[in-house]
Amino acid sequence: MQPPSPVTIARHAFDTGATPADAYATLARRIREPVTAARAVCLALGIPADETTRRIDECHDALLADPRPGSEADTGEILEALGVFDVPRPLDARDLAVVDQFLLAIDALGAIRAGHQHGLSRWFVTGNLTAAYLSLAATHPRPGIGDAAHYWSALVTAGELLAAAPTPDPRIKPALARCRARAAAVSR
Fold first, then answer.
1. Neighbour-count burial of 98, counting CB atoms closer than 10 A to its CB (0-12 exposed, 13-18 middle, 19+ buried)
2. Exposed/middle/buried for residue 178 (C-beta within 10 Å: 0-12, 13-18, 19+)
3. What is the pLDDT of residues 60-73, one digit of tens each?
4. Distance separating alpha carbons of residues 126 and 120, to the nearest angstrom
5. How far apart are CA 142 and CA 36, in angstroms?
6. Which residue stretches of the chain are H helix?
7. 103 burial class (0-12, 13-18, 19+ CB within 10 angstroms)?
8. What does each C-alpha distance from 89 to 45, 60, 172 come to in angstroms?
9. What region does 90 belong to: left with phi over 0, alpha with psi -120 to 50, or beta?
10. What is the pLDDT of residue 187?
11. pLDDT tens string 141-155
């Protein structure tokens, strides 16, 4: 009998409640091949093979090329935090319109921290537009270089689109109200 494939092992880990980071650590310890382990976790999650290859290539040299024994759990957590295991969700026309408004808002910020940009990118990929909206609604354009009127206007439009969903997240409406108030304040 042939041993189970790494993808089968990763799927089993998910069936037992493991996170992608946990599945990676278990698999990497078992097979001692970090690239194969990362690839198997991605494929078990349903991430397309070409996207899996791109993601692994991006972090290969820093994380997977020369692994330290006993670092599998840490590596798995870093891979997860970097978005290597993020499952893309297709966006419908409304979602794409929301993302367009987010991109307009980001342009109007004046500057964005790299970590914030990374988080937003992950939320766009995974379709977590509510988290992206709440994050942007809590941010303010940079004084002197940002365009507050365009920023808040884009967030009002995005919030209206999100609020029009059949079952909007209850946090959207209060955030939208704050964005409307800020848009009104800068237009005076």
1. buried
2. middle
3. 888 888 888 899 99
4. 10
5. 43
6. 6-15, 20-31, 34-45, 49-59, 72-82, 93-109, 114-126, 129-137, 148-163, 172-187
7. middle
8. 12, 24, 20
9. beta
10. 83
11. 999 999 999 999 999
Cβ contact 151:127 at 8 Å:
no
The model's pTM: 0.81
Residue pLDDT, tens place only, 3-27? 899 999 999 999 999 999 999 999 9
- What local confidence, expressed as pLDDT, does residue 180 receive? 97
The residue type of 115 is G
* Residues in CB range of 47: below 8 A, 6 or more apart: 55, 85, 87, 88
Q: Position of tokens 């969700």?
A: 89
* Residue 159 in tokens: 């919030």
Sign of the CA dihedral with 102 first, then 103, 106, and 107 last: negative
Closest C-alpha to 80, from 22, 13, 7, 9: 22
Residue 180 to residue 185: CA distance in whole angstroms: 9
> Does residue 101 contact residue 157 with C-beta atoms inside 8 Å?
yes
pLDDT at 68: 85
Q: Please report how many Cα atoms fall inside a 13 Å half-sphere around the Cα of residue 110, on the Cβ side.
A: 12
